[in-house]
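Subject: sequence -> C-alpha cells, single chain

Hey, anyone have a minute? Need the predicted structure for the following. Not urgent.
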Amino acid sequence: MTPFAFIVHPIDARRDVARKYPIARYLPVSVIEWLLKRKKPILMGHATGIESLTGAKTEGWFIGCPLTPKMMLDMPVEQVYEKILECCEMAASLGAKVIGLGAFTAVVGDGGVTIAKRSPIPVTTGNSYTVASAIEGALEGARLMDIVPSEATLAVVGATGSIGRTCAVALSPAFKRTILIGRDIERTKAIANEIGSKTEATTDIDAIRDADVIVTVTSSDAAVIQPEQLKRGAVVCDVARPRDVSVRVAKEREDVLVIEGGVVEVPGNPDFGFSFGFPPKTAYACMSETMMLALEDRPESFTVGKDVSLDQVEETQRLAAKHGFKLAGFRSFEKAVTPEKIESVRAAAGRPVGSPNPGAAQGVKQLG
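Reply:
Had a minute. Here:
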C-alpha cells in the first residue's frame, strides 16, 4: 500500500476557523490571522476505505495548513513555503509517500515547484485531473442547457494559469469562438495565437457578457464574476478556490447555471475522517489525483509548476477509468445541483421543459 496526504486550508478566516474554534466568531479577522500565522499544521482527518477497481487500496491523511488565500498573498512567499513544508514533513512522519497541494497551496509562488524540491516526499497539485473534470463538467453543463459548442462562445477567465490555459487549449476546438481573459495581455495574446484564429485575448472581464460557456479559474482571493456580466442561459464552471463567482449570482440570476467543477466519486467505501462539504464518497478532482497516484503506486511529483500538458490530462483520465474515479454530479455554492434545479434554470433561461436537446454537447471524450 502507498499512503498519501493532502493539504487543506481555511478559505475565510472567521467562518472556517470558527467551525473548529467557535470563539473565532467574536474575534477581529486581524487577530485570527495573527493567531493562524503562529499555529502549526494540524491533522484534520484520516482517510480509509479507498479501493480501486483493480483491488489496490490506499489510506491517507488530510493536513490543515493554517493560512487563508489572503494571507498567502500578503505574506512573503518564503514564509508561505515554510508553512506548506511543515505540512509535508508532518505527512512524511505519518507515513505518506506522496502529498497533494490543495486549493491555494497549489497556486502560491511557482505552483509547487519549490515545494517539490524541498519536500521530503513527492508533491502534486492535482491540476491535471482538475482540468479533466473541468472539461467534462463544462461540456456536460452545456448539454444540460441545450448549448451546442460549435455554435457557441467559450470564455476562459484566468487563461494564463496552468488550469485555465490547458482548459482553453482542450476546449476551444469544439467552440465557434473563444475569449481568453487574463491579467497580462501579452501572455494572454500568446496563448490565443497558439490556439488559433477563432480565439481572442483581453484583460477585460466584461468580455464574458458574450459567452455561452465560461470556465473560470483565477488566483484571486475575491469574486471576480458578478450577476450583471452573465448572458441569459449561460453555464459557468467555477474551478477556483476560493470561488470566482459572486454569491450574488445565485441570488439574482436564476437563468444561469453555475457549477463548481465536478464532484468526483471515489472508488471503494471511503471515509475521509472529516467533512469538506461534499456528499459521502465524493471528493475534489485535485484530491482524487493524489489518491490515483497512491493506488497506482506512483509516489512522484506528477503535476507541478504553471503548465499542465494535455498528456498529463489524458494520463489522469486513463488512471481514473482504471481505478474507478468518475464524475458524480455538480455542486453550486455548497449545495448539490439537482435535476429540479437544472430544470428551473432551463425554464428561467427560456429553454424547453424536459430533456436537453440531443443535438447539444454530449459530454467530453478522451482527449487522446
